[in-house]
Fold these 2 entries.
Entry 1:
Amino acid sequence: MSVVLITIVTLAGLGAIAAVILYLASKKFQVFEDPRIDQVEEALPATNCGGCGFPGCRAFAEALVKADDISSMNCPVGGADTMSDVAAILGKEAGSAKPQVAVLRCNGSCEHRPKLTDYQGATSCAVAAALYGGETGCSYGCYGCGDCVQSCQFDAMYMDEATGLPVIIEDSCVACGACVEACPKDIIELRNKGPKSRRIFVSCVNHDKGAVAKKACAVACIGCSKCQKVCPYDAITMDNNLAYIDYEKCKLCRKCVEVCPTNSIHELNFPPRKPKVEKETPEQAPAE
Amino acid sequence: MQQNIGGQNVLKTFSLGGIHPAENKRSADRPVEILPAPPVVTIPIAQHIGAPASPIVKKGDEVKVGQIIAQSSGFVSANIHSPVSGKVDKVDNVIDASGYRRTAIIIKTEGDEWEEGIDRSPDIKKEISATAQEILQRIGAAGIVGLGGATFPAHVKLSPPPGKTCDILIINGVECEPYLTSDHRLMLEKGEEMLIGVQLLMRALKVDKAIIGIENNKPDAIKHLSQLCEATPGISVQPLKVQYPQGGEKQLIDACIGRQIPSGKLPIEVGAVVQNVGTAYAVYEAVQKNKPLIERIVTVTGLSVKKPGNYLARIGTPVADLIEAAGGLPEDTGKIIGGGPMMGKALTSTDIPITKGSSGILIMPQEIAGRKPVENCIRCSKCVSVCPMGLSPYLLMTLAEKAIWDRAEEEKIMDCIECGSCSFTCPSSRPLLDYIRLGKGKVGQIMRSRIK
């Protein structure tokens, strides 16, 4: 009997001493963590994609709690809804970042851009780019090895076997920017999604002179600057034989699309054009 | 010169790894033929390691042979001279051996008028009157770069950084790349001039000892130069076992004098400077004959080439002209390589001009040109045993593929000399060097950004 009693008393005593030490240690070494960090993290989409510029959602939550002004910070995956939730938790003002989407600025499919050489090295755009300008005459365009597809964790990209180019699935794309990082040729760009997902962009990054670019690819931007002249909003700039449309300035009037001699300016998600004699319906009027 | 181990004569070689691919030196007995100046030359302004030269001629300018057309634009850079006389057609972007469009000066040849002061007589000028300073200045002015293929500006290598001293000059006559024979022919045909070049280099470096390393598959060159060396104190010939990549600086120093260069350091760390035989000859021409680097010997070869040979061609000659001289492009051609089969690079067009670093043009028949399908790594560690730098290529490839740059740096990815022995030996045909090269680029970028 006494053996049982001694055991119970000893263990209970040890337990009590340990409890006291743990209590004191937890008081002494306590690290205060803002409970709002957990709340904010809960509100974030938990994709840990890094699209916000921070290493994961937790780090972004910490940064959001710490920052005085969060208007310039944005979670591209959650978008405005998530950011307003976060702002509500923190009592701060959310920014008004417009939703973005990745666009592929190359249309050099097998048909438009004939192959001149045959690349047999490792299936990686980065390896190919370190080696040479690619299988076609255009050393700016897509290599088609799919580094971007590999980098996408949202299954928003796939390689089109017929064209040899990656395709971005607009509805799945969260604009995290992983593909932009992965592409060694800086072909993919994040652009504003635009009203009704309508976008206009130059689908080419070739800086070669017009004749050289055109010889390499039928749909290359030849730097003729017709689009720049026709644009009523000064949204188009020419840089070293290449046009670029500023998506903040573009009012989606589509005048540039019509004048482009090589069809290198693309319009996405617009309704089919009406014959020219008819008047433009209000639906097609410049948005924004 | 030969060590006697276990009753057998064992030739010197480097201590780690190495391979012995089929030599295929088909053009070894073909004397150098002089190729006439082509009607149009294309001179890329980036033919060397370092900053590209800046063009100082413009469209319509008349130039003479040997006239400077692009000026060195930094310490690590080199002058470029016109290899022909004629009119500058344009300064434009053209595809060069890098596979990218880069700036080049295009000159239409008219006549053959040389810049004054260049000694074109065939006489050998033996007496050396220039001082070390003058030699260095001439080498820099003549735009001489390492002609073994790395194209590092020669005057930079010959100016050791403060605090470092050089006690030996090693001349690289190894030509370990299979197929290539341009250095071999140079040693046989221009041995005497080359040795004067070696003496000039010794004077510039203020050393009294030079060793010419030659692989044992060139017995005629070893014999010829050994005889010539008897008259030149301080210079000796070192026959070496045939082993690739013995022509790598670090391997050659190890093979010749048994000194190992610490990781990440240059040969000057162990008091040695290495120059190629072609560079030594170019130095002779620049200092003794006042002739800048405007032409070089190029081997045109391949298993299916009708007339493999060695050609003295002006810089800027299109590859097509050289192939034409060698009997035309064989029908079964699968790949044209600028350089040797191990370290050379496939060319994307025959319009690409030869540059200062073009040691050869290799034409591969279709059946052996392609890569074999990639299979899984079977952990045979052959790549580890052949790596002359003692690295683990299989690991470096994986690290580069998975973008684990910090670990790649720890595993000394920057020590890789890109000799390709690992890819050559891999039984699963894995693209080891492709990924290691990618990793070197990335890690190098990270390391440079850290310094800033």
Entry 2:
Amino acid sequence: MDTPPSKPSWSALVERARAESAPDVDVRAALRQQILSEGAFHRSAPVSPGILDEILALARGLRGRSSIAALTLSVMAFGWLMSDALGEINLLVQLETQLLAGL
Amino acid sequence: MSELPPGEATDLALVQAAQAGDLDAFDQLVMTHQATISAVLFRFSSQRADLEDLVQETFIRAWRGLATWQPDKPFIHWLKRIAVRVGLEFFRKHKRSPMSRLAADGHDHLTALSCESPAPANDEAAQLLSHLPPDQRTILTLLHLDEMPLAEIAGHLGISLANAKIKAFRARRSLKKILSRHGYSSF
């Protein structure tokens, strides 16, 4: 007498697998925490207008002394803004334009 | 907008509110769709901790990319597309299924399947599929376990239907060899 195969066919296995369903998962609390923790990255996150003024004031202070220093400041400002307000591209463009105009 | 079915019109309103920074609106979107997304990602990992991470990652990417959703297509399709990509990345990072990892750690394979898994058949199938390359594994996981149409899979993976058919054909051919090597009868 033949021994029945110990392992199912692929189709039988798949059929059993399909009958198994996902457990109830609720990620809302964890999501809210994560979103709030990286709120600065959201496109609608506010960035203080004062920041731009301060950077421009620094750049104006350097005007006429060293364009290299102003460029360095510009690059630093770029890096800082990118890390703190990734979505604020318009603000960044505005800052870069004004810095370059100030050189 | 009035031509949209009620559910999609609600999604649109909630997405617009979420884009304006309304977290409660995003909560509502998550509550509406997380069961569907869990069901897809469950096929990538039935382990609760992994599953929760995958679902969370899907919605975080959705939150970050809300502006890229095109309202002419249902929001859930866009979410599923993100989920499939999150799943594919998971497969790329974890070349073997959780059960295989247990076996590699010295656990007895069958004991692990029967005692430690909430979904033994899903995991047994996932373990066999884990011998395939990640893209083929993703296609057969969605095609066989989730019963997702191949055209939809192709859309989610950003490949043509013809390409998906070729990959599915190759995947089935490889799976036959894997099944035979592990003592399973074929399709």
